[in-house]
Amino acid sequence: QVQLVESGGGFVQSGGSLRLSCVASGSIFNIRIMGWYRQVPGKQRELVASITSGDSINYADFVKGRFTISRDNAKNTVHLQMNSLKPEDTAVYYCHAQTLLHFNAWGEGTLVTVSS
Predict the structure, then answer these.
(1) What is the reported pLDDT for 30?
(2) How far is CA 1 from CA 40, 67, 92, in A?
(3) Predicted pLDDT of residue 73
């Protein structure tokens, strides 16, 4: 099994920046992809960005050019650098990992609030 712990959420004004981090533990050698999703009340959870074990990266269109995902393999950590934040980026952000056997692990979520 894989356990995920997020940090770095908070309150920021429009145009500001935040950096989210996610530390993985457990069966980390089985992880094939990690990423970040977000969810607002009443809406489905949506992909923000993902990175594979081979460093293939995917971004949602609404964050391209503003957010950057990266991984530190030595620390089993994935980061999400969020710049030029907008009020519509306000959401709970969840770290996600999928293993080689397609088991999905989720963090508890971290709240990001962007004021206008």
Answers:
(1) 84
(2) 27, 28, 23
(3) 82
